[in-house]
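dumping this here before i forget
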Amino acid sequence: MTRSSIALLVALSIGSTGCAATLAPLRGARVSPASIPRVGLTGARKVTFRWEYNEEAIVARGEGVARLASPDSARLDFFVDGGFGSGYVLVFGDEVIAPGGNLVAGMIPSPPMLWAAVGRLAVPPAADTVAAVDGSRLRADIGRDPSWRVTFDSARLTLLEHVEGGRVTETVSRAPDGTVRYTHPRARRTLRISITGEEEVARFDASIWRP
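structure:
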């Protein structure tokens, strides 16, 4: 597997659209005015993880490294087990850069889904946001469709759902044990990430941010 092909594989696994579930009604006591926790990156962090990608008959797995820098920079490197290839994605705010040309770039999902995987909420604000509290959970519908539903548990981002026509087209979930799962039900694609280590660093060398 070549470097460009694994980059395409990663791009597909992180972002595509089988059956999309209907968005469930918003549960809990309504909060007025709607207030959403501000969750973002702080400082600089290096996160190591295991990943597994599935798309029907295709399965790939390996190790990865995420380098995260405040306020909105990230580099995600993926390495296939057995030394069969590697690929990376750079994210700067709402801009995503991936090797492989226009085909790869076209398969990358919107930055909000990528940022949700590392715990940062980067959904465009909307005046018609509705929020509700259910125990320790706060859920909010953002946008007219709504375009997004975000769930927090004790101010920690645990779930982001992208909604089109009342149906959930893609999801990022974050479990307490450090497992992150991206799903795109229509395309039957999933990417599972299990965090194996995390450390704060002073800063990253500037060279890692160059494609």
